[in-house]
Amino acid sequence: MTTTTASRIRHIPVTVADVVQETADTVTLLLDAGDFPRDYKAGQYVSIDPHQFRAIAGYAAYFEDAKGRKEPPRAYSMCSSPDEPYLAITIKEEYFERGKTKYPPLLSPFLVHHQWKGVKLEVTGYAGAYHLPDNISHLTDHIVHLTAGSGSVPNVSILKWALAHLPGLRHTFIYSNKTWNDIIYRDELARMERANPDRLKVIHTITREPDGFAYTDCIRKGRCSTALLAELVPNLNSSIVFACGPAVTVWEKREAKAAGVAPTPRFMESVMAALHELGMPKERIKEEAFG
Q: What pTM value is reported for the model?
């Protein structure tokens, strides 16, 4: 499936109007862009240059010296819909993991834990091809969202827009997390499902809750597997899939290659393998990975 996106990258001055604590390590920043046009597509992102923040200038300089290159801007998907008053970006704190990442993260811990309300900053945007094509209603009447962790962010933006503007589309939103408390937008997804019972079905898959957790038909134990997809989406081949979540990092690939083994699949590798096993046509899959 292909989409086209005009290249209209612009510098956008914003003020942080409010901060929503989504989970213990995840926040949403509501950005007031004044009269700047909200002419983005649901699912796109803005970028933030770390060099604008004096508080982390020393860390940025250290990493640039260690890496031998300039620290690039970081992209953050918007969870807002273009018809909402604020640009809303959700940031999940990244962590240093031995064998998975070479350097500690620079920007996400700062964005998650700093006091941002009322602060002025600059973002650049809008960018990204992970959005509904203009002719989506001619392609399908069913969108399957496969997300994990902060991969839900652009899909929630797409979901908001579609529920408001594309009444012919149904949505199955399958969302994988480690624990119940890790679920970003948990209450908002439940609210949207209650408001659209004939158009939205939300299923959570949980991998690390202890024995005795109250699983249900809509809260499943384990990963998003081939069997689960076959059960939940019997009309998969006539649907269009939007899959977003963590993938094997470049560092993991290098470490695995040095050890002469294949890297352990992460969410995106697993769900793409499941879709392939179920015969899902590649042109009906839209994917966005991070890691």
A: 0.94
